[in-house]
Write a structure and sequence with these properties.
Strand content: 25-35%
Strand order of the largest sheet: 4-1-8-7-11-10-9-13
Structural class: alpha+beta
Helix content: 10-25%
Largest sheet: 8 strands, mixed
Amino acid sequence: MSARVESVNVGRTVDVPWGMLRRSAIDKRPVDGPVHVRTLGLDGDEIADQVNHAGPDQAVYAYAAEDLQAWSDVLGRPLSPGQFGENLTTTGIDLNDARAGDRWRVGGALLEIAGVRIPCSVFQGFLDEPRWVKRFTQGRMPGPYLRVLEQGTVQAGDVIEVVERRDHDVTVELLFRALTTERELIPLLAAEPRIDSFVARRLGERRNDPAR
């Protein structure tokens, strides 16, 4: 089976009872028809936290339907496309084995793996699962953030064509581990310069995090 987009998901900012801002657009829902993907995200999609969840390195978030199903089995509840706040729910591709810097042609857009999702209190509050940040981190199925190199439209059913696979071992999973539980892996990230800005931003945030 070829890799495809199962659904394209967008969300609007609403008031929520969790997180510091008390505002979030994590609740993404599938939309019909083509959606234009731009340098800073999808048309019709909003980002409440412009400090931690915005910018060209986090323009598009992808999560695999297969990984949603794996979590559904663990949690004992159905998880629908968009429920992890992802813009693209994919099928037929192992997102966590994809390599940082890989480039995909999806519909009319050219995307590049630029970073990885780090769980936060908003994600935990939205999913309403105890200790979710820790459980998600231990699960090592984060899904990647994608940079938009060429703007274009995407829609459900579009083929995901890997047009460039990078020649190193910095997978999405390894990047996630390096930025969360295995800091000793950070030097390995130098193998992929396309993620420099994302890594620098995350490490800066962690150094300045008063909770650490």
